[in-house]
Every structure is written in C-alpha cells, then in structure tokens.
Write a structure and sequence with these properties.
By secondary structure, the chain is α+β, with helices and mostly antiparallel strands. It folds into three domains: 113 residues, no CATH class; 171 residues, no CATH class; 48 residues. 51% of the residues lie in helices and 10% in strands. The protein contains 15 helices and seven strands. A hairpin with a 5-residue loop joins strand 4 and strand 5. Helix 2 packs across helix 8. The mean pLDDT is 86.
Length: 383
Amino acid sequence: MPSPRTRGTALRQRLAELRGAGTAARALDARALAALAANPGCRRRAILDGAGVDKAALAGALGAPSVFGQSQFALTRGNAFEAKVKADGGAELLRLVHERLDPRAEPPRDGTVPDLSAQGPEGRVARTALALREATEAGGWTLLDHPLLALEVAGSPAFLEPDAVVVHPDGGWTVVEIKSFPMLDGSADPAKVGAAARQSAVYVLALEEVAARLDPAPRVRHRVLLVCPKDFSNLPTASAVDVRKQRAVTARQLTRLTRIQDIADTLPEGVCFSPELPAGELTAAVEAVPATYAPECLAACELAFHCRSRSRAQGAVTALGRSVRAELGGLGTVDDVLAAAHGEAGDPDDPAVAALRRAAALRAEALETAGPAAVAAREAVCP
C-alpha cells in the first residue's frame, strides 16, 4: 500500500494534469469554500475547485461566461476603507473589537501587529500559527493583519486569508471581516451580512484547527466582528455577528464532500479542463464529471449558466429548485413528472405520483369550469 506522502504526490500530479500543463492552481478562498459547502453533492465543482481550475475562464471557453467579480471602483473603494480601518497600527479596529466584543478587558492602548511575511503559502501558514501562539502566551492585544490559515477540504489543503484576527488579553481569538457595504442606522443588508457570516465561519473552522494544536487550546470566539462604513460616510462602525449556526452547518457539509481523489479516479485518462482546449473537447471533459445544479448556483458558481442550460436540455427537475426536487421523490425529469401526472407511468401508491395525479385532476376540473366563463368575458370585452 502506498504511503500517505506517495498518495499525496500522485494526487497533486493528477490535479496538475487536470488543470493543464504549466497552468498554476487557482487558490480556493473562503468565499468559494462557503459556496462549495453549500452544494456538497456537486462532484463537478469539487474536482474543479480541488484542482485549482479557473472556473471563470472555463465558463467563458464553454460559451457561458459568468458575471462574477467586483468592479475596479468597488475594489479600490474596499481597499481604501480597509486601509483606513487598520491605520495607526490598527488602533481603531482594536477599539471596535474592545467595544463590541470584550468591553470588560483592558482598553487596547498599545496593540501589537506582528510581521507575518514568509516564503510561500506553507511558510505563511506556519508563521501565522507561530504569531498566534506567541500572542496568546504574551497576553495583551494583538492584531494579525491578513494572516494565512489552512483548512483541509476533501483531502486537499485550502489556504484562507481573513482580513484580520485579533488576540484578546485573555488569549481568545476573534475573526474580523471588513466589508465596504454600508451599515445604515446600525444594520446592513441581511443577504450581505449572511454571506459575510458564512465566509467568517470558514475562518473560524480553520482557526480552531490551529488552536487544537496548542496546549492548552485557546478559545476561538464564535462571535466575529463585521466592520462596515457607517451610513453614507467612510467612517468605520462594527457589529458582532454570531456564526455558531453557520459554523456548524459548514463543518457538517464539508465532512460530506466526496474526496477529490475518489472523483479523480473515476475520470478517463487524458481528461483536462484547460480553457485553451477546443470547445468540443473541453465540453466533453466537463460533462465527464456529474454536476448537481440548482438555481442557488447562479449566485455562487461561475459555471452555473453552463450547468443550467445542460440541466434544462435534459429536463432535470433540479433546475426547478431543491425543494421541488425533494417533493418529487424518484421522478427525476420533467417528462417523468408529466407522465406520472397524466397516469401514463408511475406507481399509484407513490405519494408523489398520487399528489401529481390529484393536482392534474384539479387543474383539469378548474379549466373545465372556467372555460365557458372565460369565453363569455372575452366576448363581452371584445364583441
């Protein structure tokens, strides 16, 4: 039996072949990881993200380009706001953490900002872990600016970079997420706050793995700090967000992800997802991996438009949403549903089939009853 190191080397070589010769792996960030965990049954996204394939370029080469990404203006504004929040050694950021999350602690008068620079992602992860340990042992307030964390996802490491992590005087660790959307009268867009919470939950999981290697293990706080512009100004304000639910859901879903090695082993030799390939060959490669499309993918995956068109062409009921798919039981296509509703197929004792036939009967009865009235009304308006 090959050793874990040998299997790891073979997997990395296989993933490099799937990306294409000379193509660097695209990093899997927390936002993509949160989206991946939201659809753990999609083998296509798992292998593409695990291999580091640029899905935006892949979608464009397939003729179904994505609409993801921020404008240059939004990126510039966000970077400027983050720099303002972290200015003067992070004094304002530490003040917000103290005010919102730890008011009983001593005020942060002279916080420490350690240097986290190192060679390569593995070096930065190790340097971050060392800085966290040193800050925990030293006490006082410490701000880690853009630390790098590692989280194993489906047998492959994902490197994650939160905006900041703060170490409290009592040794606790807090994730800080800085966003450029406004907080109006103390509240922000719930959808955006929810997305930030799911992203922060991924960072909390990665921090917990670092804490577990220390003795005693520091407490990773499950209330994160969300920092946003106040009202219509560029002044920072903050809110504490409890991510316990998002953390539990994400942890459970990540454990259900199919291992990347298992997916790679099922692919034919020579399969490659390089956008430089001819369209026909690239389409065949993508279709070699099953996808689990749902309308929610449109807000989370660059390949959503391609998968949606394929799902519709196949008549898959998943294109109508997960709730509809769950109600239909073993009926997987629209043709199956229509045949069952019309009494042409399906087991009458199946609850889904029985419900469909009842709905079809009610619809026919309603149309039969409304038919003459509708004709009379139309003739009255247009004689």
